[in-house]
Amino acid sequence: MTLLVDTAAAAQCLWAGKHGLITLRQDRRSFPWLPLDRLVRTLVRAHLRTGG
Prior knowledge:
The protein is built from two helices and no strands.
């Protein structure tokens, strides 16, 4: 099975997700956030697993 990925769209979605995570952490400081490295790692892994 050939997997076609729109790399530009995938990169922009990952960038937007990471940017949103950082912005929310700065804006909602009282929220009980997990460690940032754990959240970013989870976001990237989930993004890569979807495959488009």
